[in-house]
Write a structure and sequence with these properties.
Blueprint lengths: L13 H7 L2 H4 L3 H17 L5 H19 L11 H13 L12 H38 L3 E6 L2 E7 H26 L1 E2 L15 H8 L3 E2 L3 H6 L2 H27 L7 E2 L18 H24 L14 H24 L1 E2 L1 H9 L5 H10 L4 H18 L8 H7 L7 H4 L2 H7 L8 H15 L3
Parallel strand pairs: 3-4
Antiparallel strand pairs: 1-2, 5-6
Helix pairs in contact: 3-4, 3-6, 3-8, 4-5, 6-7, 6-12, 6-19, 7-10, 7-19, 10-11, 10-12, 11-12, 14-15
Bound molecules: arginine.
The site of arginine has 10 residues, from helix 6.
Length: 457
């Protein structure tokens, strides 16, 4: 039964009905829809808009529907959308009282309320998953605080860094993602219920009651805006998009670092895949897939941004198109964070390979220039002298740590014996003890700071 069929002589064409329906995807809202209806009915009873008996009977009926769906005893089918489904089922179960549930309410404020409740749940799930990921990265950072690996710029070896600092860098990104979700939740926690179709309601409702029952922080101030605002869906998907952007960077590193050419990390067999033709292959399918899923979530973001543009006030059916992008983005982001947490937990670090790679490629050249500059040579001159030393190494097929003091002195008389220490790979990373730097002490300070920020969640 359609909720609106009274005005029509003929039933909806089958093709139109199939096109119009949303139950096939908004059935995922069943929990929040019933919860919001229970709050609404309770409020109607308390305000004397329906009798207490009617309210009780509605609440009881809705609880029964909730339990049956939960147990798989009631199939979500045969209605236009989840709101119609629940109301039809309620009326089938409790009779006329069920028909009073929709008093002082419209599906417009109902669906806007449901979506806010649902996105809030999604925020909690994604935040918890991100917390697990950061905890895992913290474990790896503790383990890797004294491991040395090459740091890159332009994907060229730049300076030796602590492996712990590397993992902390990703924790920073994911902590920002958590912070963003938390911030978005503040704006999501504004209740549209009570806005009715668009203009508010003439019934003596008490929105404070429903607000408290549903755990919203605030009540919307403008009913026209409240029924047609989907900014929060776009905000959530934007947050998820940035998380995927960060994961995608980590994927790229994983794919490079686990390649034969790099060999810094190893993906365990149980998280790797093979090739159907090349027996030797061990492929990084999981990081590649996560990197690819970033494109998919960006697509969801474009979809919602495009849906909400050009919508005249107030509600328009276009807004039904908020759901699939949201559900897709939420499921994808959650799955990607979960799989990457496992991957980061189990990835094997080839400590020696990372250390050796960090020492190759003149990665301590900056330390040579800094050595001179700290002894009074203007940095620009120090840079040029060091450039010449690097050229000498390339010609002589030598590394910086293998040069003798005489060879250094040939480039500048400022060099003393301690330059031989300054160019050692580990010493280079350890010298960078500035806040946020690569010394193991700086990394430990970083770990403490991340732990402190994580404790808020
Ligand atoms: N399925 C609809 C949606 O998701 C519910 C609201 C319908 N409201 C209406 N005025 N037709 O937006």
């Amino acid at each position: 039964m359609k909720l609106w069929e009274g005005r029509f002589e003929k039933p909806l064409d089958k093709l139109a009905d199939d096109f119009n329906e949303s139950l096939s995807f908004d059935k995922a809202l069943w929990q929040v829809d019933i919860t919001a209806s229970i709050a609404h009915a309770t409020m109607l009873g308390k305000c004397g808009i329906i009798t207490e008996d009617e309210a009780n009977s509605i609440v009881e009926g809705l609880n029964g529907i909730y339990a049956d769906i939960e147990q798989g005893a009631l199939a979500l089918q045969g209605a236009e959308d989840i709101h119609s489904f629940v109301e039809n089922e309620l009326t089938r179960r409790i009779g006329d009282a069920g028909k009073k549930l929709h008093t002082a309410r419209s599906r417009n404020d109902q669906v806007a309320t449901d979506m806010r409740l649902e996105v809030r749940r999604g925020i909690n799930r994604l935040t918890n998953l991100l917390k697990g990921l950061v905890e895992t990265l913290l474990d790896r950072a503790r383990e890797g605080a004294r491991y040395i690996m090459p740091g890159f710029t332009h994907l060229r070896k730049a300076q030796p860094i602590s492996c712990g600092q590397y993992f902390n860098a990703y924790s920073e990104m994911f902590l920002r993602d958590m912070d963003r979700l938390c911030d978005a939740e503040r704006r999501i926690s504004v209740m549209p219920l009570g806005s009715a179709a668009l203009a508010g309601t003439s019934y003596p409702i008490d929105r404070e009651i429903t607000k408290e029952l549903l755990g919203f922080q605030e009540i919307s101030e403008n009913s026209l805006d409240a029924v047609s605002d989907r900014d929060f869906v776009a905000e959530y998907i934007f947050c998820a998009s940035l998380t995927l952007a960060h994961l995608s960077r980590l994927c790229e590193d994983t794919i490079l670092y686990t390649s034969e050419e790099f060999g810094y990390w190893e993906i365990p067999d149980e998280l790797s895949t093979g090739s159907s033709i090349m027996p030797q292959k061990k492929n990084p399918d999981l990081p590649e897939l996560v990197r690819g899923k970033a494109g998919r979530v960006y697509g969801d973001l474009m979809a919602i941004l495009t849906v909400i543009k050009g919508i005249p006030l107030a509600y328009n059916k276009d807004l039904q198109e908020d759901k699939e992008p949201y559900f897709d983005a939420a499921k994808t982001a959650e799955n990607c964070v979960a799989i990457y947490t496992e991957l980061m937990k189990r990835i094997k670090l080839n400590v020696n390979a990372m250390y050796e790679a960090a020492g190759a490629g003149y990665a301590t050249a900056t330390d040579v220039a800094d050595y001179l500059a700290k002894r009074g040579v203007p940095f620009r001159d120090a840079h040029a002298i060091t450039g010449k030393i690097v050229r000498y190494c390339i010609e002589q097929e030598k590394t910086l740590p293998s040069l003798t003091l005489e060879e250094f002195k040939a480039a500048s008389h400022v060099f003393e014996a301690d330059v031989l220490e300054a160019v050692k790979t580990r010493n280079s990373a350890e010298a960078r003890d500035s806040v946020g730097g690569s010394s193991h002490r700086a990394v430990r300070r970083g770990i403490t700071a991340i732990k402190r920020r994580l404790a808020k969640y």
